[in-house]
Amino acid sequence: MGLLSASELNLTLVTELFLVGFQGSQSVRLLMFFLLFVIYCWTISMNVMLLTLVSFNKNLHTPMYFFLTQLFINDILLTTDIVPNLLHILLNNGGTITFTNCITQLYFFSASEASECLFLTVMSYDRFVAICHPLHYKSVMTSAHCVKLATISWLVGFSIIWFGISTTLMLTFCGPNIIDHLFCDLVPLLDISCSDTSIVQLEVSLLSILLVIIPSVIIASSYFNVIVTIFKIPTSTGRQKAFSTCSSHLIVVSMFYWTLFSVYVFPTKGQTSTISKTLSLLYTVFTPLINPIIYTLRNKDIRKALQEGIHRHALYFNQT
User: Fold this and answer.
1) What is the pTM of this model?
2) Spatial distance between the Cα atoms of 12 and 225, rounded to a whole number of angstroms
3) Helix (H, G, I), strand (E, B) or coil at 320
4) What is Dmax (Cα atoms) for the chain?
5) Counts of helices then strands in the chain (DSSP H, E)
6) What are 181-237's pLDDT values in tens digits?
7) What is d(CA 293, CA 273) in angstroms, rounded to the nearest whole number?
8) First-to-last CA distance in the chain?
9) Exposure of 93 in the CB half-sphere (CA atoms within 13 A)
10) pLDDT tens column, 273-295
């Protein structure tokens, strides 16, 4: 967009935005509201339950499960940033949000996505060391080293996004104030700016390289070495056991990066608003839902810990 003249900039600056959300009949929107409400409650419950389970079960105090707790916390933050306001929008066939709240939502959404990219990368590194260098695993993945990796992931994810948000705040928004999206995402927000957005778009490209491309290359490289190592294991039982330790993470990574690449890195030309919104739902609502399900169903340790927890609670209530 080109720069506007001084007279045009004297127009009232936007202080409130209107999020369109999903347009449709009231019955369709109510159905979507109910489904998303159930998904949100289930997501929070599952992530909190697994977070508590890993935290209090000593058998799960290993690097892999420590990084899982960070992923669970991040998923809770991400879905809570998006879904409650989305439910309000569905009930009211669109909804207003102040510019300050919009930027706040954009910041926490972007920072959560960035942190998740880094956590998935760290988890792939953990699996790489565990399978490719098992004799050195305990000496490399110490508690102090794991805490350091998690802290760096949080700090880098939240700090590097702040620079991008700071540049966005320097733009002028003087109308229209309608965002045809489910939440305050950067691309639809830039579409309604009346300033030159080329600097922000350049920053987005750089951030995509730093937070999406480079982590995905590291993950791909880690799993290439993991797969090569697994095929070198002489017995089929050993290969199956080794692969089972990383299959859940691989599934989560594939789903997450597929949607991320589709929306931000290689968006399809002529992609409709509905497709864009649906893809956005996949990584903001359904990924936080699916993550704990995958890790629960495909992980023997967590299933065992869950069964033991349920058994202990059953015994307690029977005794009382």
Assistant:
1) 0.85
2) 57
3) coil
4) 78
5) 13, 3
6) 889 888 888 888 888 888 888 888 888 888 888 998 999 999 899 888 888 888 877
7) 29
8) 69
9) 6
10) 777 787 788 878 888 888 888 87
Q: Two tokens at 137?
A: 């695993």
CA quadruple 6, 12, 13, 16: dihedral, nearest 10: -160
CA distance 280 to 254: 16
Q: What is the DSSP string of 20-79?
A: ----S-HHHHHHHHHHHHHHHHHHHHHHHHHHHHHHH-GGG-SHHHHHHHHHHHHHHHHH
Q: By C-alpha distance, which of 147, 84, 71 is closest to 113? A: 71
Q: What size, in residues, is the chain?
A: 320
What are 319's two structure tokens?
Answer: 């005794």
Nearest by Cα to 267 from 216, 199, 180, 205: 205
Which residues are bridge partners to 17 per DSSP?
97
SS (HEC) of 74-89: HHHHHHHHHHHHHHHH
| CB contact at 8 A, 226 and 128 | yes
- Per DSSP, 188 falls in state H
Whole-angstrom Cα distance, residue 30 to residue 38?
Answer: 12
Give how far Cα 135 sits from Cα of 126, 129, 130, 240, Å: 13, 9, 8, 19
